[in-house]
Design brief:
Keywords: Cell membrane, Membrane, Transmembrane, Transmembrane helix
CATH class of the largest domain: Mainly Alpha
Order of helices and strands: HHHHEEEEEEHEEHH
Shape: elongated
Radius of gyration: 37 Å
CATH topology of the largest domain: Helix Hairpins
Structural class: alpha+beta
Helix content: 55-70%
CATH architecture of the largest domain: Orthogonal Bundle
Subcellular location: Cell membrane
GO molecular function: mechanosensitive monoatomic ion channel activity
Strand order of the largest sheet: 4-3-2-1-5
InterPro entries: LSM_dom_sf (IPR010920), MS_channel_1st (IPR049142), MS_channel_C (IPR049278), MscS_beta-dom_sf (IPR023408), MscS_channel_2nd (IPR006685), MscS_channel_C_sf (IPR011066), MscS_channel_TM-2 (IPR011014), YbiO_bact (IPR045276)
Strand content: 15-25%
Distance between the termini: 146 Å
Family: Belongs to the MscS (TC 1.A.23) family.
Number of domains: 3
Number of helices: 7
Length: 303
C-alpha cells in the first residue's frame, strides 16, 4: 500500500514535471517569436528619422542578448520546478549553486570581467549593430553580440571576435555626422579669391546632385591656405556628411573640383626643377678644359 502511494506520488510528480516543461517551452516559443518579430521590424530598411533609426539600432543590439538571457532563465526555473515536483529539496541545490557560482567567479575572473564590461557598454549605448567602431587595433562593423564578446567585420573581410574586457576606449564612426578634410596644392601665383568662388559653385552643384545630396549635411567649403609647400600652396577643404558616406562624397567632390579648375584655368601644383646657368662659371670651365687639352697636346708633341 505504501509502495502504491509512493508510485502515485512519483507519477503525479512526473506528470506535473512534464506539464511544467511544456509550459516553459510554450513560454519560450512565444517569447522567441515576439523577439524575432521585433528584430525583423528593427532590421527593415524603411525611411526613418534619426531618433527612430537610433531606437531600432539599439533594439538590434539588445534583443539578441535579452533572448539568450531569457532562455537561460526559463531553462533554470523549469529545471528547478521539475525537481521540486519530483520531491527533490531544491533549497540545498540553490545554496550549493550559489557557492559553486562564487568559486567559478574566483576561478574565471576574465569571464566575469568580460560579462560585466559588456553590461556597462550596453548601458552606455557605446555602439550598436551595424555601426563601425575602432578600439585599440580592432576595427570593423558591429555584426552581433554575445554575453561576453562583440563580433566585428573588418572592411577588408576578416571577422574579429573581441571579448568586452579587451576593449578600452571605443571610437564610434557611425554616430550623428562625419567631417572629411582634405588638401589640394595649387601654384603660388593662383588667385585664391577665384578659387574660393569656384569651390562655392562646386558646393552648390553637389547639393543639386540627387545621388549625393541626401548624404551631405554641409557641402564642400574652402577654409583657406593651410601652408606653403616646396612647390605650391596647400588649400584646406572640408565636407560634413552622414556617417559612412564621407569617402564617396569626397571622391565626387574631387572630380567636380578638377573639372571646374581645368575649365577656369586653375592649375594644380607640380614639382619643378630649376637648372642654374652661370655664364662666368661656364666660361671658366671651358677655358680650363681648353688649357688642359693644349697642355696634353704639347706634351704629346714633345714626347
Amino acid at each position: 500500500m505504501q509502495n502504491d502511494a509512493v508510485t502515485t506520488q512519483l507519477m503525479r510528480g512526473v506528470l506535473r514535471g512534464v506539464i511544467t516543461l511544456l509550459v516553459a517551452d510554450l513560454l519560450w516559443q512565444l517569447s522567441k517569436a515576439y523577439i524575432a518579430r521585433k528584430l525583423e521590424i528593427a532590421s527593415s530598411a524603411d525611411p526613418l528619422d534619426a531618433a527612430e533609426a537610433a531606437r531600432r539600432g539599439r533594439l538590434r543590439t539588445l534583443l539578441p542578448i535579452f533572448r539568450n538571457m531569457l532562455a537561460v532563465l526559463i531553462a533554470a526555473v523549469a529545471v528547478l520546478m521539475v525537481l521540486s515536483e519530483l520531491g527533490v529539496q531544491i533549497a540545498p541545490l540553490i545554496a550549493g549553486a550559489g557557492i559553486f557560482g562564487v568559486a567559478i567567479g574566483f576561478g574565471s575572473q576574465t569571464l566575469v570581467k568580460d560579462v560585466i564590461s559588456g553590461v556597462f557598454y550596453m548601458l552606455d549605448d557605446a555602439f550598436r549593430v551595424g555601426e563601425y567602431i575602432q578600439s585599440r587595433s580592432y576595427k570593423g562593423t558591429v555584426e552581433s553580440f554575445s554575453l561576453r564578446s562583440v563580433r566585428l567585420r573588418h572592411h577588408r573581410g576578416p571577422v574579429f571576435t573581441v571579448p568586452f574586457g579587451e576593449l578600452s576606449a571605443v571610437e564610434n564612426m557611425s554616430r550623428d555626422w562625419a567631417i572629411d578634410k582634405f588638401l589640394i596644392r595649387v601654384p603660388f601665383d593662383t588667385d585664391i579669391r577665384k578659387v574660393k568662388k569656384l569651390v562655392k559653385v562646386v558646393g552648390a552643384e553637389l547639393l543639386e546632385d540627387p545621388e549625393i545630396a541626401p548624404q551631405i549635411i554641409e557641402t564642400v567649403k574652402m577654409k583657406g591656405v593651410e601652408q606653403f609647400g616646396d612647390f605650391g600652396m596647400e588649400l584646406s577643404f572640408s565636407i560634413t556628411t552622414k556617417p559612412g558616406y564621407q569617402t564617396g562624397v569626397r571622391r565626387r567632390a574631387y572630380t567636380m573640383i578638377r573639372d571646374t579648375f581645368f575649365a577656369n584655368g586653375i592649375e594644380f601644383a607640380q614639382p619643378t626643377v630649376q637648372v642654374g646657368n652661370d655664364e662666368k662659371s661656364a666660361a671658366a670651365a671651358a677655358a680650363s678644359t681648353t688649357a688642359r687639352a693644349r697642355k696634353t697636346a704639347a706634351q704629346a708633341a714633345g714626347g
